[in-house]
UniProtKB/TrEMBL annotation, chain B:
Keywords: Dioxygenase, Oxidoreductase. GO terms for molecular function: ferrous iron binding; oxidoreductase activity, acting on single donors with incorporation of molecular oxygen, incorporation of two atoms of oxygen. The keyword Oxidoreductase applies. It comes from the Bacteria. It holds the Pfam family LigB. The keyword Coiled coil does not apply. This is Protocatechuate 3,4-dioxygenase. The lineage of its organism: Bacteria, Pseudomonadati, Pseudomonadota, Alphaproteobacteria, Sphingomonadales. Residues 7-270 form the Extradiol ring-cleavage dioxygenase class III enzyme subunit B domain. InterPro entries: Xdiol_dOase_suB (IPR004183).
Length: 150, 280
């Protein structure tokens, strides 16, 4: 093995080198198992109610570590991710807190929710008309926009 | 003999379910996305499928990290949706097609794909929302279901190349099925989006265009990247393009005709797209 492997030839290295991104793999899955297991339990309404009734006791029941508990208690989404939380499961916890994915995005990017939504909408400016909108037929590049037929 | 009539691909963003529940289809925010579905429904009315083979990813309804299959093929007589924890309505159940499921499973294992088989499998919004969009206001779904779940949650993910190959093997199974059903293929999720990290909100219309431009005629172009590179290009949840690649594989090696495509940014945090392909 060469001592320095390009991320292009080593996909595992790329998991830790995409800006602003950490890909959820075995290392994180192991670190976050208890936290994610608790979040998975929130598919059940009774479990959501039990968490709301006594958050600390519910976290203890699932064997959360000190760092898991601290991140949950602080509603600190970046910390939850850092201790192995996976966003698909954390979304169920966020639902209990009344947070949607724009709220989560704002919390993680240091923006207000309005600023985060504006950033999402601004991406539309990057969309070429040949790509955006409704197109019919095999050659969208040459087809005129055909919204009026929708 | 069975006939593969074509493929329907769409984003499955949970917020779409909320918009349907509120009746927001004609609101300015939602209209450009929902305008993509009358053509889908028209195509379905003409294609008259009896069965849908659906490639999707579970978001923590049926599968947890205690046992996470890379590829899981449903073989149930019935599939239920259930509470996912964050407020979507519970959607209608699906009638399965166990005999076709087992034929797909047999064919895949013969082809040395070591899949997981599921006789009991809840299906989440990634499957229900595309059905709600295609067949709104029906009392029961007009097609039977064979669901195939792909791990997009926990790396290592299957590579795009492996996904295309699996889809191609599913396609061979469908074309060798002795029944006379008209079979459609579905791929759900995507396109580019990222929910977590400092890059949350990332979308990449350039990569989405690359995918849409090649899906019908050259899906192998989408397999040049590793799954990690797809995450870099499409965002951490944009890896759901794996479901599209697999579904495209099931349509066979011949170039397909793009019947329609719709692309709109943003729906929630997602660059949303809808596509119908049919055999040329």
């Amino acid at each position: 093995m060469p001592s320095q492997v390009s991320v292009r030839t080593d996909p595992r290295a790329l998991r830790r080198s995409i800006p602003g991104t950490v890909l959820f793999d075995g290392e994180l899955a192991e670190r976050g198992f208890a936290l994610n297991a608790m979040c998975y339990s929130f598919n059940d309404a009774e479990n959501r109610a039990a968490f709301v009734a006594d958050e600390e006791a519910y976290c203890r029941k699932f064997g959360l570590s000190e760092e898991h508990c601290a991140a949950v208690a602080a509603r600190d989404v970046p910390a939850m991710l850092a201790v192995g939380g996976n966003v698909y499961y954390l979304a169920k916890l966020a639902g209990i807190f009344g947070l949607n994915v724009q709220d989560l995005g704002a919390l993680q990017t240091g923006r207000s929710v309005a600023e985060f939504k504006a950033m999402l909408s601004a991406t539309r400016d990057l969309v070429d008309p040949a790509l955006g909108g409704l197109h019919f037929g095999p050659d969208p590049a040459s087809a005129a926009l055909q919204r009026e037929h929708a | 003999m069975a006939q593969v009539v074509g493929g329907y691909f769409t984003s499955h963003v949970p917020a779409i379910g909320g918009a349907i529940e509120r009746g927001d289809q004609q609101e300015a925010y939602w209209k450009p996305f929902f305008d993509g579905f009358p053509p889908v429904r028209q195509w379905l009315a003409e294609a008259r499928p009896d069965v849908a083979i659906v490639f999707y990813n579970d978001h923590g309804l049926n599968f947890f990290l205690d046992a996470m299959p890379t590829f899981a093929v449903g073989a149930a007589a019935r599939y239920d949706n259930a509470d996912e924890g964050w407020g979507l309505p519970v959607y209608k159940s699906f009638v399965g097609h166990p005999n076709l499921s087992w034929h797909v499973i047999e064919t895949l294992v013969e082809a040395e794909f070591d899949i997981t088989t599921c006789q009991n499998m809840k299906v989440d919004h990634a499957l229900s929302i595309p059905f709600e969009l295609a067949w709104p206001d029906v009392g029961a779904w007009p097609v039977k279901l064979v669901p195939i779940a792909i791990n997009t949650v926990q790396f290592p993910l299957p590579s795009p190349r492996r996904c295309l190959a699996l889809g191609q093997a599913v396609g061979r199974a469908l074309r060798s099925w002795k029944g006379d059903e008209r079979i459609m293929v579905m791929g759900t999720g995507g396109l580019s989006h990222q929910l977590e990290g400092a890059r949350a909100g990332f979308m990449n219309p350039e990569y989405d265009r690359f995918c849409l431009d090649n899906l019908a005629t050259d899906p192998a172009a989408l397999t040049a990247h590793s799954a990690e590179e797809v995450a870099e290009l499409a965002g951490t949840q944009g890896v759901e393009i794996l479901n599209w690649i697999t579904a495209r594989g099931a349509l066979g090696d011949a170039p397909q005709t793009m019947v329609m495509r719709n692309y709109h940014v943003p729906i929630s945090n997602t660059a949303a797209a809808t596509v119908v392909l049919e055999p040329a």
